[in-house]
Design a protein that fits this description.
The protein is of the alpha+beta class. It folds into three domains: about 190 residues, no CATH class; about 80 residues; about 140 residues, Histidine kinase-like ATPase, C-terminal domain (Heat Shock Protein 90). The protein contains 13 helices and five strands. The chain has a five-stranded mixed sheet with strand order 1-2-3-5-4. α10 links the parallel β1 and β2. α7 packs antiparallel against α8.
Length: about 425
Amino acid sequence: MKGWSGRSGLAKVDLYTRGTVYLIPWAGVLGLTLLLQARPVHEDGQLMLVLSASLLAVAEGVLCGRLARHAMDAYLGQGQVPRSMVSRAAAVTAATTAAVVALASTVDLAELLPTMLAAGLAPFLTVHCLLVRNRTTGLIQLAVLAVVGGLVSLTGRTAGQALFAVVTTGLVTGWMAFTARASMWVLAVMWELREARDVQARLAVAEERLRFGRDLHDVLGRNLAVIALKSELAVQLARRASKGACEAPVGRRSVDGWDRAVDQMTEVQRIAQESHREVRDVVRGYREADLRVEVEGARGVLAAAGIACTVEWGEAELPGDVQSALGWVVREATTNVLRHGDAQRCTISVRTEDDTVVLVVENDGVTEAAPGDAPGSGLAGLRERLSAVGGTLEAGSCRGGRFRLTARVPLNDGRNDGDDLVGDDVKEAV
């Protein structure tokens, strides 16, 4: 189980909100129990009646506490509440209220009665408001207050005292219900925003894949269709030439069909080589991205997700292969900021140190192990890309719950910037 420091900001808010709502029923139970131990009740009240009211109050706290946990999950769309649980809590609440009213008929509770009624009704009404609509909550509150007014009148209180009890009970229970409902509403909105951020990150990845797939389709679609047609034509020409050679008299066999088949296969070879070059151009186009464009795009995506992004630029002009490699680092780092932790601020800095370009992406809100520490992480792929241009990558948590990703690429590395993405098997086929 994670400790407080090991939770994200949203998880802390979730725990705090749930704990607050969960304690409301027990606050009412504690208040009612203490009031039952007050001197007028303790000295003048019937012992069995006081004991019964106290036990019912504790039972109400237990049932409403369990109901609160399920009600909060149901409000956030994470479960359902059994009707039997609601019925039991309502029945015990009614019994507790009846015990308080019965006690008031035998003892002069004076100003204690309104407070005792509010403390007895608040646990159930506070939790129940999470299960129904606001309008239904209001109607239930009015109905309960009408019943309270009638019960207080039966104890021999005046109309003014009954009205005071109704107003006091309504204010206390209404305020507690409003507080619980508003707190859970804010929590639900925060979870929806978190889910929207995750969806946005997944959509960005999916959009990039679709764009790459569309470019490959545009490049290879027509060429593959032509290759298929010319290959089929070459097969047909070869078969006709073979058949003609078998039927023709010796010495009069023609090689024209074979020559035409060879011409078609030569054309197929040319188109295949052309397609290979076009694929390499597509891949190189994805690698040779402008670093400033990538950084500004990252800043826009982070801003849309509610994350303040600060960019610090150096003055040196960077070669195309260095910008391309660091552009991929910016993309992956942005994805990690969106998908991991609960970042509020992010800093992207690019500077030159001793003929080495240093890119640092640092964000707050990190509560778990660094994303790059897990096997199969996207950062492993970045290390491979950077190693192709002599670069290195460091990623890990730092002080203050922050995560820092540092990429270093030398400016004087002369490696080819395109062959590593194509693959050795493809290069050998050229």
